[in-house]
Amino acid sequence: MPSSKRPFPVLVQRRTAVVHGLAGFASLMMVRSLGGCGDDSETSDGKTGSGTGGAGGGSSSSTATGGGGGDTDFPVRALPEWPPLVSLIADIGPLGEPDDNGVRVPEGFTARIIGQSGTKPHAGSDYEWHLAPDGGATYPTEDGGWIYCCNSEVPIIGGAGAIRFDPEGEIAGAYSVLQDTDINCAGGPTPWHTWLSCEEASRGGVYECDPWGELPAVARPALGVFKHEAVTIDPDRGQLYLTEDLPDGRLYRFTPDGETPNGALDLTSGKLDVAIVSSEGDVSWAEVPDPLFEGGTPTREQVAESTAFDGGEGVWYHRGVVYFSTKGTSQVWALDVESAKLSVLYDRDTADDPVLGGVDNITVSASGDVLVAEDRDDMQIVAILPDGSLKPLVQIVGHDTSEITGPAFDPSGTRLYFSSQRGPNGGGGAGVTYEVTGPFHQPA
Known about the structure:
The protein is mainly β. It has a single domain (14-66, 85-443), classed as 6 Propeller (Neuraminidase), CATH 2.120.10.30. The protein is 5% helix and 37% strand. The protein has two helices and 30 strands. The protein has helices at residues 14-20, 22-36; strands at residues 51-52, 61-62, 85-87, 103-104, 110-116, 133-140, 146-152, 159-165, 171-179, 184-189, 195-199, 206-209, 218-219, 228-234, 239-244, 251-256, 270-277, 283-287, 312-318, 321-326, 331-336, 341-347, 359-364, 370-374, 380-384, 390-396, 404-409, 415-420, 432-437, 441-443. The protein has a five-stranded antiparallel sheet, with no helix packed on it. A five-stranded antiparallel sheet has the order 14-15-16-17-18, with no helix packed on it. The chain has a four-stranded antiparallel sheet with strand order 5-29-28-27, with no helix packed on it. A hairpin with a 5-residue loop joins strand 8 and strand 9 (171-179). The model is unreliable at 1-5, 12-63 and 66-70 (pLDDT under 50).
């Protein structure tokens, strides 16, 4: 299938890629993209995008298509029911000594490496795990196993890949679900079992991907053109919330115009709003007049009264609350959707126990524990419990120049996936993806 014109202009001159070659270009650009996570320039250069995938060995092909209406309607899958869960995180003990891979976990937990940049996670699959693994999510599969889908935060040749697990937790395949996109940082899962991959470039966009690798990834320009970080979905109200990683980034809300024939939210059209927060924490929303950034004013600057957030990072919806982090202020926020009230869940500058720093990607347990991955700092994943106390769950030793990315629980809630984006000190920038297994949850 031929690729269509890429709808989100890439920010790096193509001549650089031609001169250095793709592999050399990736290495050359990793320091730039990972140190600052993108280019703040408002200039652009067009580019096409394509993707390949395959649920077993990565042999089938697909293309990242541009445009909005009439694109892929992702299927409704007949997936097994996993039991509802309750979190045991409050009962977890302190971190132990580092294991052979430099991972510290509590007693009763184990860690293993499931992917390393440039190596094959599964011998029977052609796919080599991508550079700079970033945001991720898991999906149950028809056979009782699951998939971990994960971005590649690399300029021009980024995208996303996936590792498939059988019902026993053994790796059964690895493949690409999106290729040749720009600085794919975080994103978010959808209730209809797709992955929204976000480009952290000033003219970046969002691509909807099939974690099974069977269907083409689809560009979703209606979600706005800006320096995307992450996205989450409020399934109760049918709205999406998006963060922007800039010192003056914004918090956005997207309301689709309707649903697809399969009952999913139709992401081809809708209204993009930006948050306005009062001094008392009351949140109102104003429509962005030019969400595609077709004029001369960047998306974040189009509503003068909108509120700036310093370095918007991870975002996650849980039981009526949208949680998101701002790395520039080392804060985690909680937006009560019903009352439209915004409050600070964690602030390192005022915390009694400031063990959490460099706040970045987040996920939430079944019982509302907010897990926050650190960018550098102590290289930990720290849970903010419902009572406000903090509990370190994982630490990676010897990766001081890296960051933890992509935390996500498997459907059983007993396996936590995440990556060290740039790998160990002196490791050449090759990322490492881990699985930690233990009693994070139990059936409710």
